[in-house]
Amino acid sequence: MSAALNVYEPRGIGRALETASAWLLGALWVLPLLYAFWTAFHAPEFSTRLSLTAPLTLANFVTAWQAAPFARYFLNTVLLVSMVLAAQLVLTTLAAYALARFEFPGRNMLFALVLVQLMVMPDVLIVENYRTMSVLGLKDTIAGIGLPYMASAFGIFLLRQTFKGVPRELDEAARVEGCTPLQVLWKVYVPLARPTYLAYALVSVSYHWNNFLWPLIITNSVEARPVTVGLQVFSSTDQGIDWSIITAATLLTTAPLLVAFLLFQRQFVQSFMRAGIR
Amino acid sequence: MNRTTQWVYGWLLLLPAMALLALFTHYPALANLWHSFQSTPKGGQPATFVGIDNYQQLVGDPIFWQALSNNLWYAVGTIPVSMALALLMAVWVNDRIPGRGILRLAFFTPTILPMIAVANIWLFFYTPEYGLLEQFTGAFGLPSHNWLGSKSTALGALMVVTVWKEAGFFMIFYLAALQSMSPHLGDAAAIEGASRWYFFRRVTWPLLMPTTLFVLVNAVINAFRLVDHIVVMTRGGPDNATELLLFYIYEIGFRFWDSAYAAALTMVLLGILGIVALAQFFFLERKVHYQ
Amino acid sequence: MWHRSIRNALRAVVAVALGMAPVLAQAQTPVPTEVSFYYPVAVGGPITKIIDGLAADFEKENPGIKLKPIYSGSYQDSITKALTAVKSGEPPVTSILLSTDMFTLIDEDAIQPFDDLIKTPEDKAWLKSFYPAFMENSQTGGKTWGIPFQRSTIVLYYNKEMFKEAGLDPNRPPATWKEMTEYAQKLTKRDASGKVTQWGVQIPSSGFPYWLFQGLAIQNGGILMNAAGTQTFYDKPEVIGALRYWVDLVKKYKVHPEGIVEWGTTPKDFFERKVAMVWTTTGNLTNFKTNAKMDFGVAMLPAGKQRGSPTGGGNFYLFKKSTPAQRDAAFKFIKWVTTPQRAAQWGIDTGYVAVRADAWATPVMKQYVEGFPPAAVARDQLPYAKAELSTHDNQRVTKALNDGLQAALTGTKTPEQAMQDSQAQSERILRTYRR
């Protein structure tokens, strides 16, 4: 979606100044990340010396990979985000459909209750949710990490908005053809909400990939630990911190997201944009 | 569809989501309130009702007040700055300056990284003597400074990290809003002889209000929710200078295992979030202009 | 007719016998006893590999036991994880946790003492063979709750090259506080603009400054807590005096970096030649040996009124709720891994102090010490070592001290004020345990 020529765009000196400032800010912005790359790809002696002739090495990545079961951590994370996303897509679709297209007493109250979760996220209620998980016997499992998030208020909110925007004529047309409400949902609403689904999926995946505090509390063993907790356990040793290895491990854990982002930049950005502007 | 069918469908469709929400949001909030009036079970002794003991302890706890004050300063320090920077970035990228694709990438990348990873990188960055920041300031002849190790700058240092991570995220929303603005508005204003600043103040800014509100809400929630960087960088120190509410709750609940006190602290946090929610609700009704 | 009933009876018997067969068969091939344990890594070195190696060796000699070592991060992470597991009803069988967590674990009803298992004369002799300094944090109320495994003391690492440059004898490390101050003043270098390019001495103060501080306190003749773990003495003059010395190094003599010094980066600061003398654990010895690219020495901590250092490090604990088979298997493993030979090897591989005197007499250790004398410094310091700060509700009571130390070091409180506040906080917490 390219912007039409904005008549207020700067020209001449103004444009040059603006470009320079933007570039400066951009450079400052990537600096820490570039520094991390530098340290990860060079031997420890060069981690703080920025000489251009320093030899590149992959040894840090190898050491980091072998020092902790990152493969297992990645598997756990992938399982976690997939599980959460799948559940969220189903649950939020059903709930949004109900809130958008059905009239029943208590609808507004229930919607208000849903909105509570926008502010009061499970992250804030760690002490109680931990207790609940013990009772349910789901401590130290991947399901235990994901369960509190599966009913996503944000998702319900977005989808309700989107469903409300679907013209009633399509709904009625499908109904006339003899579809049950669920069939109408599947045939009419879901396809039309695809952009929202995509946007929401990206938000959800990146949120849960990066989630840390709740998984830290609820998991105890390697079998359930996601990659964020694995990284912290790995780099929290009270030993002498070896930055080369820690930055290598950090880059390892963020590599999948970074690569995915670089490849799907446009879609990523566009979907985030579509998700928010309401 | 008759009313009963609507009724049945409505409730059934909502049921799974509401059940989970009730279990992990509504019930815990209420249970938390209940537990904040009890004592912590320890060893063989079960919890007993202690009335407002935990709250009295809270009021008399200097670390709690420090954490609260830190959190408020932290919110004040990160929210406006990250929003302003986000808007600025969005305006620049929208102005189609050369290299804007790369710029957009540069601004947005910190957002997709986990805060834990970001914290590690910045911890390295801030290392006194030979961290990159030290080398930078040293090159300009500035004295060495232990950013994370001194009470006056530790919280500020963490705020910088947060802004770095969040601004790009907000930029995207502003960018979307800017790009969805009709160019006719600009044309009309230019014909009237409005300056760029005037156009921004009287046309663009009000139209961005929904986005600003959305971004504001997000920023506020994150200011109270995101404490990952504290876990890695300062663990609340030096001397509680970077102790934030949720981190304190985590320490009390999962390092000291004092679950009753943690419940009382959580109630304070819920109270703050509740106030913000109400404020947002009222704002929504009044000040927002829609096209 | 009776044919049929007999036939039916026979059928029943056969069926039962067939049903029993797998059970009987299983009794012949026993299911291995599984012993899970958490272990932290708090010192540099490939600890995970070494632990896995030890586990594999033990399993080879004991085919009926399966060890399951679980790496759990830092000491603080490990106690959190262990207690989390206890509270969720699935405790590990044993774990290596800080010796100072003893009271907390007892209060949480998580561990059982070893005394019931130590019956034979060999076992009793084995228990007596550990250094008394390490047993101080391992016993209370007449019972033994922990077995020393990876124990340490604080030592002083110093850069011999920098000593030479400053005109100091590289083989004479500072023996008293006065000497340390004087040496540090000679060793602190500033550039033309007054910015320090090389610090004289640095004592880490991030995370758990109480440990390093305890060294200073003992050296000044103070003790931080009573043996029962129900009282602290943060505001005694000797303790305040120790803190004042530390603050003076920063503010008065200006030989010590300002603000909070990070524990994790202190060795690297040394390797990067940013500081001439550092206080850190002997457990970092192998780390220094591998990565310090200059001639360095290791010394006992300097004496104030006396020499002294807290002990540090982790013990093996035995958790409740394990089956007798698991308990015995764990005990077997603990005894196996603390034989003189293995204790010596563990000390060599990691830099921890071998926990028993006869480990130091083994040929492999003697040879190691001959080739690398600094390895014996921590051991020689043991006569001066005292128990590490350990009380009920340990995490909270040490946090009170940590906060006070950090306040004094960053200049927001005077040493007196800081320690008095810490003591007041600690009193509030420990009061309930004194009934």
Give an account of the 3D structure.
The complex is a heterotrimer of chains A (278), B (291) and C (435). With 278 residues, chain A is mainly alpha-helical. In chain A, 71% of the residues lie in helices and 0% in strands. The two termini of chain B are 34 Å apart. Chain B has helices at 3-35, 53-59, 62-94, 100-112, 115-126, 132-139, 151-179, 183-192, 196-207, 209-225, 228-233, 245-254, 259-286. Chain B has one domain: MetI-like (MetI-like fold, Orthogonal Bundle), CATH 1.10.3720. Chain B contains 13 helices and no strands. The radius of gyration of chain B is 24 Å and the shape is flat. Chain B is mostly helical. Chain C folds into two domains: 33-152 and 312-379, 3-Layer(aba) Sandwich (D-Maltodextrin-Binding Protein, domain 2), CATH 3.40.190.10; 153-310 and 387-434, Periplasmic binding protein-like II (D-Maltodextrin-Binding Protein, domain 2, 3-Layer(aba) Sandwich). In chain C, helix 18 (394-409) runs antiparallel to helix 19. Chains in contact: A-B, A-C, B-C.
Give short descriptive properties of this protein.
heterotrimer; A: 278 residues; MetI-like fold; 71% helix; B: 291 residues; mainly alpha; 75% helix
What is shown here, in short?
The complex is a heterotrimer of chains A (278), B (291) and C (435). By secondary structure, chain A is mostly helical.
Radius of gyration of chain C (Å):
26 Å
Note the overall shape of chain C.
globular
Helix/strand/pairing category of chain A? mainly alpha
Order of helical and strand elements of chain A: HHHHHHHHHHHHHH
Average pLDDT score of chain C: 88
CATH level-4 homologous superfamily of the largest domain in chain C: Periplasmic binding protein-like II
Q: From the 3D coordinates, which CATH architecture of the largest domain in chain A would you assign? A: Orthogonal Bundle
CATH topology of the largest domain in chain C: D-Maltodextrin-Binding Protein, domain 2
Structural class of chain C: alpha/beta
State the end-to-end CA separation of chain A.
Answer: 18 Å
Q: Which oligomerization state do the chains in this entry correspond to?
A: heterotrimer
